[in-house]
Amino acid sequence: YxxxxxxxxxxxxxxxxxxxxxxxxxxxxxxxxxxxxKKNPQYKPGKVEIDKSLxxxxxxxxxxxxxxxxxxxxxxxxxxxxxxxxxxxSCIMSCQARAIKPKKGEK
Length: 107
Hints:
- The chain has helices spanning 3-15, 29-39, 60-63; strands spanning 48-50, 70-72, 78-80, 100-102.
- It is built from 3 helices and 4 strands.
- Strands 1-4 form a two-stranded antiparallel sheet. Strands 2-3 form a two-stranded antiparallel sheet.
- Helices cover 26% and strands 11% of the residues.
- It is α+β, with helices and mostly antiparallel strands and 107 residues long.
- It is flat, with a radius of gyration of 16 Å.
């Protein structure tokens, strides 16, 4: 889940003349959280929240990162739908304004 490192490998692979393969060593977080919930019914993944004082409304989380847990409020601000958030925190790196934070009191 090191996005910077992943992007570096993706750029390198795209520039390679021929077949390039990238092998990720960590499972899909959606699959992982489902498995953890089956193994331990008390398992609660961490959640994120938007610090509206930092959010610059660039909407990178919606338009580029495209996580389905992000939505637009009636006032135009970004919100997190906690029912859809799987809690992997990978979205934190997508926000240039650093407005996506681990939810207080969560993992």
